[in-house]
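agent> fetching stored inputs for the adenosine-5'-triphosphate docking request
agent> found them:
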Amino acid sequence: MAQIELRNVSKRWGSFVGVDDFNLTIADKEFLVLLGPSGCGKTTTMRMIAGLEDVTDGDILVDGKRVNDLEPKDRDVSMVFQSYALYPNMNVYENIRFPLKVRGIDPKTHDEKVRRASRMVELDDFLHRKPAELSGGQRQRVALARAIVREPNVFLMDEPLSNLDAKLRVSTRAQIKNLSHELAVTTIYVTHDQIEAMTLADRVVVMKGGVVQQVGSPTEIYDRPANAFVASFIGSPAMNLMEGQVSGGVFSAAHVEIRGLNAPDGPLTLGFRAEDAALAPQGSGQITAPIYTLELLGDATMISVRVGDALVSVKADKSYRAEIGDMVSFSIPNEICHLFNAKDGARLGD
Ligand SMILES: Nc1ncnc2c1ncn2[C@@H]1O[C@H](COP(=O)(O)OP(=O)(O)OP(=O)(O)O)[C@@H](O)[C@H]1O
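agent> prediction call returned; pasting tokens
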């Protein structure tokens, strides 16, 4: 059992703020993903939980006990890093066994524990090999097994898939999800890849510049982004955002007019997702504009449309065909519009 609580946690180096007033309770067995662009403070947050970085302000509690002053080895957490840091001279078996030796675990139990962990990551047939004789994906699985074998209360994973090629990333991602379910261990996972976050997480924390922007389930974050930054960071493609003016419930921007909005007069950022735009017969939509490019995705066609100076994405059926430069017409039903304050990007209304 491990519930982790961060209370007003901050990290500063001199006047530079790496993490600013982070508050969150991570439930026992929860899979929590810290997501954000490079430098937003994800790794620093995780390192503070691991005890590898001192907390400047605030408290970290595990199961209600303050752990700020505990050494990493006394925190009952297992970390998996982006670089696998395996011992090159030891074979896979010895690499996985190593944490058990260091911790003075009864040697009689080692074999069973190592074999169980290696079975979970499907490395049973590779136990005699040295790291140099393994693929990148297999090495990362050794690192996972080495974390599993300790039977920790918490897994901390820092971009564990980022050194793998695209195909391996997808299969290892599925394996991590399955493992976390099977082991039922609280997991904190750092990534800048929103697809990884959406597919793995029970809850996602989106960070920017050391500040938490939103905490929520993947669906909440996708359907109701708290601000324009989150909207632009989540989704593939990201949400279309247009700057414009509202007057009497009518949003106007270059080549765009959307009526019936419940928004105050003044500047506004309007967002919509590619899949929510509705293609309309030629010339009958709210927006008619030239196609900039088309991407055939297999299950759909993504149309990039040049609206004034901006490019917006509109998702069409997989059978949709047109040429670059053709005109396309579409509407943005006002119930699917996301409205954001033009100044600070905060979400308006529901
Ligand atoms: N020891 C340090 N001294 C000063 N600044 C630091 C130190 N470690 C990290 N930082 C700064 O703190 C900020 C947050 O770093 P952090 O590594 O947590 O970001 P991140 O979100 O994990 O990014 P990435 O995805 O690139 O790893 C960055 O701007 C970084 O340069």
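agent> quick read of the result: Residues 13, 16, 18, 36, 38-44, 192 surround adenosine-5'-triphosphate (CB under 6 Å).
agent> awaiting further instructions
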